[in-house]
Design brief:
Pfam families: ADH_N, ADH_zinc_N_2. Belongs to the zinc-containing alcohol dehydrogenase family. Quinone oxidoreductase subfamily. By secondary structure, the protein is an alpha/beta fold. It is built from ten helices and 15 strands.
């Protein structure tokens, strides 16, 4: 099969940063689907992993990135139920297995669902990873009760892929007051379109959040620059509030700043369930099935803002360059 991979961690401008390769068809495990990939999206995690995976030296075999995917089931393992050849499915994949920069991909059916019917495969590809991350952040990590009234949610990085879905889910499924950070007028307008009630500038987060008499927020979903915003988050979080983040940092943070408030810090990594084969691994398939219904019912909109064409190193290098600017609003998708 045709695929795109890399052997060395190189700047994206390097000729060999990503390579066109030919690989064997993936072998199926008993719980796997073999999927003919139709479309993917490219995430900041793709670029981060390209830069880090082979930093110590060249790999022996091409490494395939790619998480989000929409495609057609070509074959099923003998332990699979609920799927058959010809089904269109979507998923965010498993970080411990070869990714979706390929014509064919093997994926555990427990982290897969049928794709929404009302949007194109490329449009749907903008959603799986960010939807799982946002859903798990809101309902598994922050433990926001459905339908809750009056408490507030601050979304730091509201115009990005995960922030966009977090705002939509909070707006449609909870009664939270939603405050989103955005430093540009176009990103602020995007956040309001997603459902945010108020926009604040992350460059002066405490003063901006408190400008209308609001002293604290009950929940914080943090999707951008953990170290930069740590002190402000500790200042703004309500007593017994919850902070959730997806952003790792090598800086030392003073977590005792949360002690007086009995506030919680929760980590969210969408890949945890598949990496550790947790007992509730199939929850991700269930979440994606719920998201597909929300899309088909018109309650959640897809978030693609850029679309490229073709499975090739050239196309994916262009995508990585765009992602690495750090200024994307919404998601970048590629139709194969």
């Amino acid at each position: 099969m045709k695929a795109v991979g890399f052997l060395q961690s190189l700047p994206i401008e390097a000729d060999d940063a990503l390579l066109d390769v030919e690989l064997p068809t993936p072998a199926l495990r008993p719980a796997d689907l073999l999927v003919a990939v139709e479309a993917i999206s490219v995430n900041p995690a793709d670029a981060k992993r390209r830069i880090r995976t082979a930093a110590e030296g060249p790999l022996d075999e091409p490494f395939l990135l790619g998480y989000d995917a929409v495609g057609i089931v070509e074959a099923v393992g003998h332990d699979v139920s609920g799927f058959k050849k010809g089904d269109r499915v979507w998923y965010a994949g498993d970080a411990s297995r070869p990714g979706s920069y390929a014509e064919l991909q093997a994926v555990d059916h427990r982290i897969v669902s049928h794709a929404p019917h009302s949007v194109s495969p490329a449009s749907a590809a903008s959603l799986p990873l960010v939807s799982l991350t946002a859903w798990e952040m809101l309902f598994d990590r922050l433990q926001v009760p459905a339908g809750v009234e009056s408490p507030s949610l601050l979304v730091i990085g509201g115009a990005g892929g995960v922030g966009s879905i977090t705002i939509q889910l909070a707006a449609k499924l909870t009664g939270l007051e939603i405050i989103a950070t955005a430093s540009r007028s176009e990103s602020g307008e995007w956040c309001r379109r997603m459902g945010a009630h108020d926009i604040v500038d992350h460059r002066d987060l405490v003063a901006q959040t408190r400008r209308d008499g609001r002293q604290h927020v009950d929940y914080i979903a943090q999707y951008a620059d953990m170290s930069r915003h740590w002190d402000a988050m500790c200042e703004l979080i309500a007593p017994q509030g919850r902070i959730g983040t997806i952003v790792e940092t090598t800086d030392r943070l003073d977590i005792s700043m949360l002690q007086e408030k009995s506030a919680a810090l929760m980590w969210e990594l969408m890949f945890t369930r598949s990496l550790f084969a947790t007992a509730d691994m199939d929850r991700q398939g269930n979440i994606l099935a719920r998201m597909a219904r929300l899309v088909d019912d018109g309650l959640v909109m897809t978030t693609e803002t850029e679309k490229l064409e073709g499975l090739s190193a050239k196309t994916l290098k262009t995508a990585h360059r765009m992602i690495e600017t750090g200024s994307m609003i919404g998601k970048l998708v590629i139709a194969y």
